[in-house]
Design brief:
The chain has helices spanning 12-23, 35-42, 59-68, 93-121, 141-161, 185-193, 203-214; strands at residues 2-7, 26-32, 49-53, 75-78, 124-128, 166-172, 175-176, 201-202, 225-228. It is of the alpha/beta class. Helix 6 (185-193) links the parallel strand 7 and strand 8 (201-202). Helix 1 packs across helix 7 (203-214).
């Protein structure tokens, strides 16, 4: 059985990715900082998932996860994120650092621990970025900076680690995840109208692209940014 690691696994795109990978016959190591939510969500998957509650920006967590692997690693998915939605001049240094540590530092720590086993398995890495990396949207300076850096880091890693390890990024647009639950219906409707498909996407639709990127069907896809936004980034109202 193939093995995968997914961060941010207790909700949203991370949870959907765990679901789709289990369906594709992976054993998944699910990581999330919210232990209670992780336990609740992973209960449905029985022995096909190993749970790791912890902070992805903590290097020691990755050492523990590496020791729990069953002998190989075919896929590493970085989906965890942190968000402090404020203009740059209102960002706290702690909030700024936290967002970069979660979204970028976690990649550093994971590769320090897992590079050898990923290389030996000829595995794949998928970084979950965002359309914030391509477009300016108010109130997301550290988030946008981190997601833009993820895109650049993915390209660098693809060059650094190929041909043994393929590295790609997915770039989701408006996806109906828990972060949207506090948004009023009118705003959600406006976001939907901003897409060519006239709706928000689902977390499963992003997860399906992640599973594809890890599969033999994507064997010649490396260093790519795959946009999954329902045409949001190309639609312009006249």
């Amino acid at each position: 059985m193939k093995e995968a690691i997914v961060t941010g696994a207790a909700s949203g795109i991370g949870l959907a990715t765990v679901q789709q990978l289990v369906a594709a016959r992976y054993h998944v190591h699910a990581i999330d900082i919210n232990e209670a939510e992780l336990l609740q969500q992973m209960a449905r998957f029985s022995d096909t998932v190993s749970m790791h509650a912890g902070d992805v920006s903590d290097a020691s967590l990755w050492s523990t996860v590496a020791q729990s692997l069953h002998g190989g690693l075919n896929l590493l998915v970085h989906s965890a994120f942190s968000l402090e939605a404020k203009p740059l001049h209102q960002q706290t240094p702690e909030g700024w650092t936290r967002q970069l540590d979660v979204m970028l530092g976690s990649v550093l720590h994971s590769m320090r621990e897992l590079h050898g086993i990923l290389s030996h398995s000829e595995g794949s890495v998928v970084l979950v970025s965002s359309v914030h990396s391509h477009f300016g949207l108010r109130g997301h300076p550290a988030y946008a900076a981190a997601k833009g850096a993820l895109n650049a880091l993915g390209r660098q890693m693809a060059v650094e680690y190929g041909p043994e390890i393929r590295v790609n990024s997915v770039v989701p647009g408006p996806i109906m995840t828990p972060i949207w639950e506090s948004v009023d219906p009118e705003t959600i409707g406006e976001a939907a109208k901003g897409t060519a498909l006239n709706r928000l996407g689902t977390a499963v639709e992003v997860a399906d692209v992640i599973v594809f990127l890890a599969s033999p069907l994507a064997s010649y896809v490396d260093g790519a940014e795959i946009v999954v936004d329902g045409g949001w980034s190309i639609k312009k109202n006249p």
